[in-house]
TrEMBL record:
Pathway it works in: Purine metabolism; purine nucleoside salvage
Extra remark: Although this enzyme belongs to the family of MTA phosphorylases based on sequence homology, it has been shown that conserved amino acid substitutions in the substrate binding pocket convert the substrate specificity of this enzyme from 6-aminopurines to 6-oxopurines.
Species whose genome carries this gene: Luteimonas deserti
Keyword terms, alphabetized: Glycosyltransferase, Purine salvage, Transferase
Protein name: Probable 6-oxopurine nucleoside phosphorylase
UniProt record similarity statement: Belongs to the PNP/MTAP phosphorylase family. MTAP subfamily.
GO BP annotations, alphabetical order: L-methionine salvage from methylthioadenosine; purine ribonucleoside salvage
Domain Nucleoside phosphorylase, residue spans: 7-245
Amino acid sequence: MNLDIDLAVIGGTGLYQLANLQDVEPHQPVTRYGALSGPVRVGTLEGRRVAFLARHGEGHSLPPHRVNYRANLSALHAFGARRVLALNTVGGITGRFGPRVLACPDQLIDYTWGRVSTFGEDEGSEVLHVDFGDPYTPSLRREVLEAAGSAGVELVDGGCYGATQGPRLETRAEIARMRRDGCDLVGMTGMPEAGLARELGLDYACLAIVANWAAGAGPQVDEVITFQDVLDNVAAASAGIPPLLRAL
Ligand code: HPA
């Protein structure tokens, strides 16, 4: 069912709804890949059709490795979405990416395992070798950065997102290795979502919300990361998201 969606937003940890979305209707199809994380809420924002889906479910019941990424993306695609903005809560590894920073990364490294990572999984389906040199769509990244600029929202341009398996956080040695690998940010949901979006030909960009310093990355090396810190920092940093989305 094509709902002519101009922009689809997938919300991450601490982001379970979209402010200012009007005339909202929920849609919860079951796809050939199974059930979505929750309803796709389709409404109007600044005169445009916008869809919102909470990646972990509206009650945060799905851990990152159990999100049905294929169902979520195939439903957004079927609804006619061509642009997907993924909101991802992350830990910061390098200096520019401290807590409460918003960033629009331009690279990623996939450390996840055991997740269904392609639409080419089914018996007899086509083997898909999509180009993924730029994992985030450059034109959509530009639009996101311009929207932030015009809305007066500070947004770091670039950075490498390392996608880990979770649901536990990382060890300090794992983060030290990720830093050596070139990662600036660490999160658990960036993949396979970005790769599946590319397989579907969707424009896809990530708006990363830094919730904490990753293990050992902050000024206090043995700092313990609590879920409450994560939620508090996401809530504070999220103030910039509604104006950015309106501009987008
Ligand atoms: N590691 C992985 N994922 C995360 C983190 C982290 O430190 N913070 C928020 N999501």
